[in-house]
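Lab manual, section 2.4: Encoding a predicted structure.

Procedure: take the sequence of the chain (352 residues), apply the prediction step described in section 2.3, and record the output as structure tokens. A sample record is shown.
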Amino acid sequence: MDPSPEPSLRPADSPSSGNKNQTNAPPCPWNQALLSLSNEIKVRQYSPKTLKSYTLWAEKLRYFTLHKPPEMLDVEDVKRFLTHLAVERKVAASSQNQAFNALLFFFRHVLHREFGTMEGVVRVKRKPYIPVVLSREEVWRVIENLKYPFDLIVKILYGCGLRLSECMKLRIQDLNFDAMILTIHDGKGKKDRTVPIPQKLKIELENHLHLVVEKHEKDLASGYAGVFLPSAIERKYPGAAKELVWQWVFPSKELTLVPDTGELRRYHLHETHVQKAIKMAVRKSKLLKRASAHTFRHTFASHLLAANVDLRTIQELLGHSDIRTTMIYTHTVISTTIKEKKSPLDFDDGIF
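Recorded output:
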């Protein structure tokens, strides 16, 4: 469950809002604390999603304690807040754990204090989670109801087991057709990994990249400033944003105007466009299961396990740091295992 601001949140309470009648007022301690939290997260190069999540949980604690000054907060405030989430808000175990991790970070790196023990906190019981998995026929039915490039995106999600965000952030240099491997940089937890490119996608991907190259050449001719890059890379390699190897595999349709500089840059295709296309395709396919972009990653893992691929190999392909995360797929199939890296898109059953 994504954290969201409490109903009591008012625009005037936001760290980014200002009060024109209080220009000489001292800075708000909470605004300063939230700014420090943002800086600490950025220094560690955590993802934007982590920044958003941790900031929202800190704000929730702020409202729960009725704007108690950050320097006055103690462990009992956190205990009462976490118990409130479990008892009153009835949040999921994952949300309570997310809140705990966010506030632990806030106390350690912003308030420079340790939590101590969390005894006495009502903990949400974690329910067994069994992911939704599609059959190969169901995967194909969804793909048949998708238009280009969304059909290719879903083939990559299923054929390579990528998260949607990982697929959208692919750059041309991440595809190695000589070795037939795809490299995912800065995946979840800032980890890199490689996965095999399905043989059945080679020609389709090459044709797609040909269109990407044509779009890039038109962009260069129009004088655009390049793709968006991490600031550190752009500082080190000033011309990298216009180089072909740094272009997105799935670029957005329109250029983005950067207000501060007036430059036109290209972003990757937004995740919401893919999610909407998949939702519509699932509806047209008349599936009797809930299915989203992440379902194809679950299906990738389950189909490999059903094909007797070793669990440790699947863990490596998915980029899981803990084998226990990968073991959820043992509840979806009955299998024996062999050690071999393979894509389910390359299974020879005549469906694809």
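Check your result against the sample. The CA atoms of residues 199 and 346 lie 7 Å apart.
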